[in-house]
Amino acid sequence: MTGAAAPPGETGETMFSKAMLLLTVTFVTMLYAMTVTIANVSLPQMQGSLSTTPDQIAWIVTFNIVATAIVTPIAGWLANRFGRRRLMIWAIIGFGVASVLCGLATSVSELVLYRIAQGAFGAPLVPLSQAIVIETFDEKVRTRAMSIWGTGVIMGPIIAPAIGGALSEAYNWRYVFFMLVPFTALALVGTMAFIKKREANTQSEQVKLDWTAFAALAVTITALQVMLDRGERAGWLESPEILIYLGAVIAGLWVFIARNFQSDRPFLNPALLGDRNFVVGLILIFIFGMLNFTPITLLPTLLQKVQGYPDSIIGQILSARGAGTFVGFAAMMIFTKLDMRMMMALGFFLQAWSGWMMAGFDLTVPTENVLIASAIQGLGVGFVWIPLSIVTFATLGKKLVPDGTAVFHLARNMGSSIFISISIAVVLRQTKTAYAGLSTHVSPFSEAYRMPGLHALPDLNSTQGMMRIGQETTRQATMMGYIDGFLLFAIVAAAAIPLVALVRTKRPEAD
Fold it and tell me: pLDDT tens for residues 225-266?
């Protein structure tokens, strides 16, 4: 069992233990990745079942991400306070219970509440898993270990939409949450078996948490998200409601910054900002978060409501994105010696290209075109995620890694939730604008009605004809709104490419 294949200083038993630990944290990461994408495939069905608007149903996605963003920064503190293994076990249990409650929800408010709980319990899983990989494997094998761990991020988006779409079509949307239960059970068993117990740190100076700073951060994030979600419908700064949210954002951010820089033990360590790679990595991971989940939030509603796609086909399209990500991850595992900056630039370019392709969709776009665009977008994710995860922490001291991973995932989650809301606001506004423009041409006196061969157009002098032309105008305007949303996605992805040049690939000699 201790053959020559074992690296110096490691026995076969040690290698097996590390392999099983890596497999476990990869599966736990996959579990979290599943919950982020699993609801998207059934958003249109949920919207009809719960009688909600497109921006309201998006809360099911955005508030799950917001809850994750709020809890993520205290994952390290919770691990020190209660123990890493204990925290992961209870987080997985809470995640499983919240998933069942999501499936039993009878209103959109209940579903959003349980999704918040699901996001809060799932928040510690990814940063803790990433920290375990970084601490367990040395630099010689860390890239390969991170690539394997990263497969958890992409296997979830492959498995969840495919199975969830089929279950949703065969039964109903509730089964996309019930299907998480067996995966949760497996993750719990693996964690209890292979994650070593590390005692909680009982020293008082190590367990202090600035609750004022944490509360201020939570208020800032929540108020910002609600403001973005409600802005378009409420009228933005013309609405007293939005002004209240804006005031809460400013006040919360001011309190957080003041407390953070005046405290002896800051909530977020300012020393992190002294590392160039980490700062650039935060900017890039924020942009990556903006790009990561927005297409899979917009596409399902577009495909079902505008083009009539069934849930199973939507699930396959979202799985194609996951498959593209898997190919990207596999390539990164093979070409480990390539310049990380080149791979990240290629990844952002592919995402920009996919956004440009989606901006060219129309009401008759073939399914294969949607699949290709989704796969290319996923491939871009695969090329960006691993290199970005590596270079962000390449020059960061080990003592700062736990805090760094929390901030890293906080930035990613904030980027996702904010940009989803902005994109939906763009779609809603542009749809209204497009409808207003198109409707001016809908008239019995329009030149189109005088053209030969167009006698099949609805009769605008009848109620039925007016209804038909109104529905078609709405479809056309909605499609135009989504096109603008995808165009914004492409612009943001392209804007990230020049920033990659700021990444430093080697540690300075002074370090």
Answer: 999 988 888 888 999 999 999 999 999 999 999 988 887 777
Structure tokens at 394: 């390449």
What residue type is assigned to position 4 of the chain?
Answer: A
- Per residue, the 3-state secondary structure of 488-500, as one string, reads HHHHHHHHHHHHH
- pTM, two decimals, is 0.82
Q: Give the gyration radius of the chain's Cα atoms.
A: 24
The answer to whether the CB of 66 falls within 8 A of the CB of 221 is yes
**Residue 461 burial by Cβ neighbours in a 10 Å radius (0-12, 13-18, 19+):** exposed
CB atoms within 10 A of CB 117: 18
- The segments of the chain whose pLDDT lies below 70 read 1-13, 154, 197-207, 336, 443-463, 466, 505-511
Distance of alpha carbon 122 from the chain centroid? 13
Q: Residue 431 CA to chain centroid, in angstroms?
A: 25
3-class SS at 341?
A: helix
- Residue 462's contacts (CB-CB under 8 Å, 6 or more residues apart) are none
- The dotted CATH code for 12-209+267-439+466-502 is 1.20.1250.20
User: Could you please report the per-residue DSSP string of 314-325?
Assistant: HHHHHHHHHHHH
C-beta of residue 418 within 8 angstroms of C-beta of residue 291: no
Cα(274)–Cα(216) distance, integer angstroms: 24
SS3 445: coil
Q: How far apart are CA 33 and CA 26, in angstroms?
A: 10
Which of 493, 498, 108, 508 has its CA nearest to residue 295?
Answer: 493
Residue 375 to residues 34, 300, 335, Cα–Cα distance (Å)? 18, 15, 20
DSSP secondary structure of 384-425: HHHHHHHHHTTTS-GGGHHHHHHHHHHHHHHHHHHHHHHHHH
Helix (H) or strand (E) holding 115: helix 108-122
pLDDT in tens, 135-144: 778 777 777 7
